[in-house]
Write a structure and sequence with these properties.
Strand content: under 5%
Shape: globular
Radius of gyration: 18 Å
Helix content: over 70%
Number of strands: 0
Number of domains: 1
Length: 165
């Protein structure tokens, strides 16, 4: 197979993957939106522990996408093992915030699809180049550093309405 043919197949595969990701994202948002919107309506603000948890789980999701796309699964697996207790605590905090595992799962699915869609149009090599700092950072995050990162991200988040203390 020539280089031109291989590049053509690579581009075709990329276009197919983009369409699959887009369809999955739209489907997930359609399925998740009613429950997510209802939960948002019940909670006008996000408590500090839930804001921290949301940022921590967002980081973990971004790391999962990057490690999968860039063949760095070991980094993700090591991160999850090293931070297992914190991850479970963050998941429990979000389940409590959303008042149930079902609503948390919907939120988590929408988050993963939104993050994947942000990168769907990137050439894999460019995406991996851009993701390298995230992958390198993940190697250094133990539980205290992971928690500190999530707290800092939650404090810097200007889009989430946080409850007054």
């Amino acid at each position: 197979m020539g280089i031109v043919a291989a590049l053509g197949e690579y581009r075709l595969l990329g276009e197919i993957m983009k369409k699959i990701v887009l369809i999955a994202a739209l489907l997930a948002m359609t399925l998740a939106q009613p429950g997510w919107a209802a939960t948002k309506g019940k909670t006008a603000c996000m408590p500090a522990n839930a804001a921290e948890a949301a940022q921590a789980l967002r980081y973990m999701t971004e790391l999962g996408i990057a490690s999968n796309a860039c063949s760095s699964i070991g980094i993700y697996a090591d991160f999850r093992t090293r931070n297992r207790d914190a991850i479970v605590a963050y998941q429990k905090a979000m389940i409590a915030h959303f008042k149930g595992a079902k609503e948390f799962d919907k939120w988590n699915t929408v988050l993963a699809n939104q993050l994947a869609q942000q990168h769907a149009n990137m050439v894999p090599a460019k995406f991996c180049e851009k993701a390298m700092p995230l992958l390198e950072q993940a190697k250094t995050l133990d539980t205290p550093k992971y928690r500190a990162y999530a707290v800092a991200q939650a404090a810097a988040d200007t889009q989430t309405v946080k409850c007054a203390k």
